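3.2 Worked example (two chains)
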Amino acid sequence: MALDPMKAAALEDEVARLRDLDLTALHARWKALTGRRAPPHLPKHLLLRLLAYRLQADALGDLDRATIRFLERLATGGRKASAPVPLPVRRFVRPGTLLRREWQGILHEVVVADEGFSWNGATYRSLSEVARAITGTRWNGPRFFGLRDG
């Protein structure tokens, strides 16, 4: 999400002002921002970082649900330390993106739209539906268009 320069400067100033606050003032700022008491055991440097994050997340947008669940799984030790934790699946193409794939000598172009994926004058809900229409077989759409490792 793009932030206009005036708002970006105001956010930067607000975060910079946090650095000048003592621990009591940081606790008060936390209460004003979240409506809850700050955890009393947090040292100043951590409370400062949490407040700065919260201000930025409020202005720019917070983490999506899949990423939050991913981080919670990591934090609670839901897996063995040596086992890899898969990254959350996220929509990694924005509306307006043009995807190209050559299939059986024909170049296919798909435009990412707000409501789905546009190909050959039709709109599909998923890339997998587009890949199926192109090939006539079941495909993982992101993999077919080279957006995911095979």
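3.2.1 Second chain
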Amino acid sequence: MKRIERIIKILEKRYNTENFWKEPFKLLISTILSQRTKDEVTYKAAERLLKVANKPEKILKLSERQIEKLIYPVGFYKQKAKRIKKVCKILLEKYKGKVPNKRKELLKLPGVGSKTADVVLAYGFNKSVIAVDTHVAIISRRLGLTKNFDPEKIREDLHRVIPKKYRKIINLLFVNFGKDICRTVKPRCEVCPIQKLCPSKISFKSIEK
């Protein structure tokens, strides 16, 4: 078995990836809200907003001020309120209220970058793509899966080495792993379940000494 497949199998036993699949529109709005915002704040804000307005046409009936109040205290909540209204307007005008399932089209939407587009494709449309965020980028470099820092290039590198059947869950696994063990600062290598498969463990140990 390839090293990456062994790593994935080990992490799969540790972290749940079964209950993340969501309706594309709700996922799109939640991911826009998540930018520069902690997960627990994002979840609550998305829940408040989508409980009041769960479709583009319903959100457009709200004022920016109403949206701001519902999503506060997410980071840059005023800008995100404007962005969400723009996105909903475009969805209604160009896509009949539906979220497009093509990456090229998603990237045209205000506030939608490569990570957001890939999250929607993977977990809203069940497509075999890898969403690259900070955790995915850092862990991929530490594991020697890429030497790049640009998210698009990291995505290309990962798509070359990770089989399609695993791509959808990589973001979920690496995000959980990054929060739990392979932290950005002071990774917990001493309790890492994939330490023997990680080429960076030696450098981290030397730093600790």
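3.3 Remarks
The chain has two domains: 3-16+131-208, 24-124.
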